[in-house]
Design the sequence.
């Protein structure tokens, strides 16, 4: 027993520190004899074992554990070596609770045994949760049909993938394992930051990032894909990997494209309708103002269209308009807009075209139309067009002015006898710079 | 002892572990009074930190009272009580005066004790009284 003076001393004795050390250890320590008598036990052992004892008695380990480890006395008795491990990590489920203990017993001498008891309830619950999550994740990963999922390392190499990657992209495990995800995007060049790299970089910064656009199949064909990249943070919060989930949205994209086409296209000829055309012209004007990209407008009008309608009927008139658009399309680039501006009037917007190019294209169109008789079931019909040409100029601030100049040039072509190309009187100012 | 009104006048040495007046006596007892008790007594603040660790308890456990003050009792002084039988009752029951059989591992030997768990709603202190249990 400690004396009063010792108790009041500031410095705790080594004995007291040792007691504290052993009692505060979160692992239960028990020294006992071959008959089960407990000689020493620390606080953690009492905390874990007392709930097993109806009468709050920890004097005999076998008695305390009689219901959950009934074989313990026998295995200790039958252990004949002078020392050694008798059991290791024996799991003891506490009756009436979730608690699970593990028990290790070591023989350290003929009359002395040591037991270590640990509460692994939380670890078991944690393990069960992780196992559950893994199973759930596996189920999603493997069997979800419309989503290709792959896990990617911090430097963008494919680590693992599910079957849908093959279903959606035609990729087989051997094609993708360890390769970079640049493989999935058509724009990867050594010089440009590729879509994949940029996507992962955004995911690293913001947690997730999304890309919607053309995505590569193994055979080189493209599909319209939506790819979501999610960063997998490590303890410090840095991305140490990513999950990529890709959906094939080609059908949706086609549907949207169809809707856009319906809203922006003249149903008879397939040319852009006037509303879409105006947007296209204002885009061209913006590009001119911002970047100096010049453009030419050609206003094309079918000569004597009223006569054709009166003589052959509206259905032939319609056929003529369809044929005009077809010939324009054959003679223009994909980027050039063909707009049905009025009844038999078409506005062509040639991006980047200067005066010489615009005039020669207009001439080519005029000739092509004049040379191609239009079949209409009751014979064929020779049709000519007049074209007014103008170019965007430094003073242009709105589309109406430019279209008006093309209109004036068109009238001059009509006045001069039709089947002609006339240039608006102002020379193209593109050569002297943009506004 | 049975006259509650006289309780404050009773000297600490005459107060018994299972006296029905113990809660009332504790209310007016000073820390010095607690040191005079013939059985172990730990006073806890409502956050379970040690407010007083009396001399009898120090003799029993071998721990220096001054070093225990302010420590979390259930985790850093007597972790053997950190279960549903003791700590949980203090934490969840509003009013508590219960005597239970328990085992302390004082000086690492299991020692059969009786514990008295005392708590009154609104009171500034909880008390845990400890006395060895005869066979």
Sequence:
């Amino acid at each position: 027993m400690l004396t009063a003076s010792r108790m009041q001393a500031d410095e705790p004795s080594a004995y007291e520190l040792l007691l504290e050390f052993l009692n505060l250890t979160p692992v239960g320590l028990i020294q006992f004899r071959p008959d089960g008598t407990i000689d020493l036990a620390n606080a953690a052992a009492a905390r874990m074992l007392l709930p097993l004892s109806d009468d709050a008695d920890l004097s005999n380990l076998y008695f305390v554990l009689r219901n959950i480890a009934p074989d313990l006395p026998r295995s200790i008795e039958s252990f004949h070596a002078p020392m050694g491990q008798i059991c290791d990590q024996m799991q003891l489920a506490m009756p009436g609770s979730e608690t699970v203990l593990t028990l290790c017993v070591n023989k350290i001498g003929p009359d002395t045994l040591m037991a270590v008891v640990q509460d692994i309830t939380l670890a078991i619950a944690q393990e069960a949760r992780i196992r559950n999550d893994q199973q759930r994740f596996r189920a999603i990963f493997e069997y979800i049909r419309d989503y290709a999922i792959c896990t990617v390392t911090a430097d963008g190499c494919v680590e693992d993938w599910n079957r849908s990657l093959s279903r959606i992209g035609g990729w087989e495990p051997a094609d993708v394992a360890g390769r970079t995800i640049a493989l999935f995007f058509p724009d990867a060049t050594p010089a440009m930051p590729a879509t994949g790299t940029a996507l992962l970089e955004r995911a690293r910064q913001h947690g997730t990032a999304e890309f919607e656009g053309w995505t590569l199949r193994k055979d080189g064909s493209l599909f319209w894909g939506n790819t979501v990249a999610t960063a997998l943070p490590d303890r410090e919060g840095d991305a140490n990997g990513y999950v990529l989930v890709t959906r094939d949205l080609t059908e949706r994209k086609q549907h949207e494209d169809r809707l856009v086409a319906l809203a922006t296209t003249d149903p008879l000829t397939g040319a852009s309708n006037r509303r879409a055309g105006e947007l296209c012209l204002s885009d061209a004007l913006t590009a001119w103002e911002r970047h100096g990209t010049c453009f030419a407008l050609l206003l094309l009008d079918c000569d004597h269209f009223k006569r054709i309608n009166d003589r052959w009927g509206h259905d032939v008139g319609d056929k003529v308009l369809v044929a005009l658009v077809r010939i324009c399309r054959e003679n223009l680039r994909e980027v050039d807009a063909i707009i049905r501006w009025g009844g038999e009037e078409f506005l062509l917007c040639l991006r980047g075209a200067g005066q010489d190019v615009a005039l020669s294209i207009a001439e080519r169109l005029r000739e092509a139309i004049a040379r191609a008789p239009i079949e209409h079931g009751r014979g064929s019909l020779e049709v000519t067009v007049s074209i007014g040409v103008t170019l965007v100029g430094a003073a242009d601030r709105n589309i109406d002015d430019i279209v008006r100049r093309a209109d004036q040039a068109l009238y001059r072509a009509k006045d001069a006898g039709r089947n002609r190309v006339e240039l608006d009187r102002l020379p193209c100012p593109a050569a002297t710079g943009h506004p | 002892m049975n006259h509650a009104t006289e309780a404050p006048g009773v000297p600490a040495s005459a107060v018994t572990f299972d006296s029905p007046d113990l809660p009332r006596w504790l209310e007016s007892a000073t820390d010095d009074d607690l040191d005079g008790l013939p059985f172990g007594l730990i006073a806890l603040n409502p956050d379970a930190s040690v407010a007083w660790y009396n001399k009898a308890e120090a003799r029993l456990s071998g721990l220096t009272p001054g070093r225990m003050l302010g420590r979390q009792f259930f985790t850093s002084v007597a972790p053997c009580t950190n279960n549903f039988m003791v700590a949980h009752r203090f934490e969840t029951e509003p009013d508590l005066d219960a005597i239970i059989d328990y085992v302390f591992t004082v000086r690492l030997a299991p020692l059969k004790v009786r514990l008295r768990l005392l708590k009154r709603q609104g009171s500034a202190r909880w008390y845990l009284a400890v006395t060895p249990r005869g066979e």
